[in-house]
Amino acid sequence: MKTFKTLFVTLCLALLSVSCNKDHYDVSNVQGINAEGEVLLPLAFKSFTVTDLLERLEIQDEMEWSESGDITFCFDYEQNGVVKGADLLKFKDIDFEEHYTFENNYQDEEPPFTDTMVSVERSILFDSEHIHVMRAQMKSGRFDFMVASNLGEVQRVVLRSDNIKDEAGNDFELDLPVQNNTFSFDMGGLRYVSDTANTLNLRCDFYVHAQHTTDPELFVDLNIQGREMAFSQMQGFIDRFESRSSLDSVFTLFSDNWGGILEVKGARIKVSERNTFGLGASLVVDTALIYSEGLPPYSVIEPLPLSVALPAQTEFREVFDREVNGQINAMGGRAYATTNFVVNPEGIHEMVTVNDTTSIDTRIDVEIPFSFNVDHISYCDTLDVNFDDLEKLDMMEQLVLEMSFTSTLPFNLGGDFLLYNDESESIVDSLSFSPGMIKASFDGEPVKTDLTFVIDEDKMDRVTRFNHISMNYYLDSDAHDVKLNANQKLEVFLKARAKYKTNVVLDEWD
Amino acid sequence: MRKINRLVALLAMMLAIFGTQAQTVSPVDFMRLNPYQMNANPATDLPYQSVMSLMIGNIGLDVQNTTLRYDNLFEFDAQGRPATVNLRQFADNLKEENYVGFNVNMDLFTLYKRLNKGVLTINYGIKAQCDASYNDGLFKLFGYGNGAFVGEDNPAKIDMDINAMAYQEFAVGFQRNVNEQLSLGGRAKLLFGFAGVETDAFNVTLVTEPDSYTLRMKENIAMRFALPSVVYVDETGSLKGNGPFGVGELFSNPGFGLDFAAEYRFDEQFSAVAAVHDLGFIHWGNNNIGMNGKLNDAGQFYDNGDFLFKGLDVDEWQLIASDDSYRERFLDSLQNYFQLEFAPMKEYNTALNSCLLLRGNYDLDAHNRFSAQVQGRFLGSGFRPAFTVAYCGSFFDNLNVCATYTAMPDSYDNIGLGLSAMIETCNIYLTTNNLIGLFKPLNASAFNAQVGIVFNMFAPEKRFVDESGKPYYL
């Protein structure tokens, strides 16, 4: 028992003699946290349908969608009044001078102090190569008269015409004062009726207050100017006449971000015409060219010239519908065409009524189905980013980005991403998908492409210093003729596997 | 430095709150001359006519921490100072299931008085107990990342079970020697709960889908709090303070408990004890608050009760990358999924941490006793057994020494020592159940300390006095 007690007391003293190291519990020097592990994280996803794609192209307004999702790229071009009735019903200005002489009855004696009247008559011709007006409603027109005479001062004039009618149907008669030997009248609103086409008969009675000349011959010099003469409607005859027209239009397909050549398949050009002349007409297309940057011009209509009959009708009628194949720059191009319209090509002599609203109108519809053979189309875009917190990424030992693409798009995809620092004006790193890396689906079945990018510590250091991404995508259909459909899409999924091994300094997280 | 302080505070909380195994075995339980051995064995026959203590009779602190170790948390520099926190090392040293417990016990008033038929015991004290179990999921998730937890069958699981209560205890007991072999004892305890925490569920599961790395988080947190009425839930569901604390708060939430024990002496050397402690409950009737943590439907990441993160739309990434205010709003919005909801709740009962005890004693002589004991305690987080062997002896006429060794699940290095000195009628004692833990408390699986001064007010009973009139235990 004594031995046991001795041992026990010794043990107690030994335990009590254990010293405590206070530094061991001094946590004031703890600098950080050593962390090591691997984090798996889904990062981003996106489903790009063709519709989304078109939104980015900002051309949705030009799109038409069928119920099955087929997409057609539509351009409308309408040119009203290729040939205008109003042009036919306008007449050239008239400048007419006439010298009238009369025998003086008072050659040897003083003329009596009474009024004297002399009358002149004149037929004025409305000059026109193509129309013969028998009846018409005057839209506008003004006659200016200048009179010079040895009779004395002309006080007034009375104008009369038997083929101009007032609103009540009476022959035209107008009594006008003459000042400074000039007078004028407006023909707007009057009606023209004549048995002889384009001819206006006019009689002018000039009144002089008191003749004083004893010259053997009296004379009146009359200067007539017809201005802005036009009919709003006419009845008469139209001869065959031609009118040349041209179309020169710059068109845009996609935004400036896109570049490359599209092989257009099965595009349709439709031309509709409306002819309200009441007479048959015809259209002859001489030239129809597409100019596109980087490509030689080519004719979209073969063979040329192309002649199309345009019967008289009040509604548009499709007169031309043809499939067109060819190449075009993704940015667009220029369409150029020249045409010749012929009214009354047969020269039929038949009375017609023409209004100033009568015209031949043209509408061109271009339908380009999204059916292409795409050869290296590219799309460029930029994105500004502000990843101040990316500095925390330096704790990562390795970042593995795993990208999964599921595509029903009928073209291969590739891309270059340049990470740019604005301050240092330098490219800090780049990421490339070679063209065709993301596989297309040519049979409608989803095609999956998995890509993995490993970003090591060195690369991580560079990646944290960019604030601008320049993106350049490439598309190609791998020599397939592909047709875009609204239901086709590209699903992108990005996930990350990040290995971290670091000492997180606590103050940095304060 | 502020972050370091926060970290240390967090660790301290984890060590203190998460590491709670209450009421482990103490050398006091085996010290034959310490009146507080009756806490473990109410049937014991004390060799005193009467005992009294006031305020400082028994102050006990008990901590059990099966796996959290200060030394495992840090990497140390050449001078032995902690330099960095090593999350993986810390996680690697955890077990799948871990346990921490905390217990404070203060007997403010004690009076034991021997009567004709036995000993009357009266106690008033304050107790605070907290115990929690937790798995290693949270720390391994931080230590390894979710790359170590991939697939439905290998989720990162964070499970916790936290239970705590603080209460006052008025105990009146009686010990009686039925005959020379058998002694019985028992105590009835009136309790007044002050505050309590009970966990019905605390589970968070994170599943990382192996192909897409999609993260699915399930959360189910349901806890009950019984708090003094100075804390309440307002109409918006927020916790609010409500004026000063009143004395009346100390006597709300009544409860009742029982201890009883039997000791049988086979002969002068061998005896056995069977005891049950803390059989009872506390009725939390006032100002109870329920806290529920379930995923809120706060937007795109909510999926049928789960938080589901499948990545972000590229357009949203662009906004986050280029727009500072959008990024701020986005990050703030994530908090909305994980809001804790507080709501007043009905009254409920909490069982006390009941304990079963079986002990065998061998008295070598009048001054030396060897004991072996098995004890099991029902805690909120589970059943905790303990096996103890103890030696108790008297030395130098006034020194009592008790040495113990206790083995508990995940805690096998508990060598305890108790010392007590009799100075006149004054019994001063100091004990611990883990001497190693005394010097390395943050690295010990268990730590217990009890101190106190007890007054033996009258002369010992004749049967405990030798022929010279001196108490034989001295």
Structure description:
The complex is a heterodimer of chains A (510) and B (474). Chain A is mainly β. Chain A folds into three domains: 160 residues, Sandwich (Jelly Rolls); 152 residues, Jelly Rolls (Sandwich); 127 residues, Jelly Rolls (Sandwich), CATH 2.60.120. In chain A, 7% of the residues lie in helices and 61% in strands. Chain A is built from four helices and 29 strands. In chain A, strands 2, 3, 14, 18, 21, 22, 24, 25, 27 and 28 form a ten-stranded antiparallel β-sheet that branches. Chain A is elongated and about 175 Å long. The two termini of chain A are 62 Å apart. In chain A, 24% of the residues are buried. The model of chain A has no long low-confidence stretch (mean pLDDT 82). Chain B is mainly beta and 474 residues long. Chain B has a domain of 308 residues: Porin, CATH 2.40.160.40. Chain B is built from seven helices and 25 strands. Chain B has a 14-stranded antiparallel beta barrel. A two-stranded antiparallel ribbon of chain B has the order 2-3. The longest helix of chain B has 17 residues. Chain B starts with a helix and ends in an 18-residue tail after the last strand. The relative contact order of chain B is 0.17. Classes of the chains: A mainly beta (510), B mainly beta (474). At the A-B interface, helix 1, strand 1 and strand 29 of A face helix 1, strand 2, strand 3, helix 4 and strand 16 of B.
Layout of strands and helices, then pairs:
The complex is a heterodimer of chains A (510) and B (474).
Chain A: H1 2-16, E1 32-49, H2 50-57, E2 63-65, E3 71-84, H3 85-88, E4 94-103, E5 116-125, E6 131-149, E7 154-165, E8 171-177, E9 182-186, E10 191-193, E11 199-208, E12 217-238, E13 241-252, E14 258-275, E15 281-292, E16 295-299, E17 306-310, E18 317-329, E19 332-343, E20 351-355, E21 359-369, E22 371-384, E23 396-407, E24 412-421, E25 426-438, E26 447-456, H4 457-463, E27 468-476, E28 482-483, E29 489-505
Antiparallel strand pairs in A: 1-29, 2-3, 3-21, 4-12, 5-11, 6-9, 6-10, 6-12, 7-8, 7-10, 7-11, 12-20, 13-19, 14-18, 14-21, 14-22, 15-16, 15-17, 15-19, 22-27, 22-28, 23-26, 23-29, 24-25, 24-27
Chain B: H1 2-18, E1 50-64, H2 70-73, E2 74-76, E3 82-86, H3 87-92, E4 97-114, E5 119-135, H4 137-144, E6 156-177, E7 182-208, E8 215-226, E9 231-233, E10 239-241, E11 254-265, E12 270-284, E13 288-293, E14 302-303, E15 306-309, E16 312-313, H5 314-322, H6 324-335, E17 341-345, E18 348-351, E19 355-363, E20 368-379, E21 382-395, E22 399-408, E23 411-423, E24 426-432, H7 435-439, E25 446-456
Antiparallel strand pairs in B: 1-4, 1-25, 2-3, 4-5, 5-6, 6-7, 7-8, 7-11, 8-13, 8-15, 9-10, 11-12, 12-18, 12-19, 13-17, 14-15, 19-20, 20-21, 21-22, 22-23, 23-24, 24-25
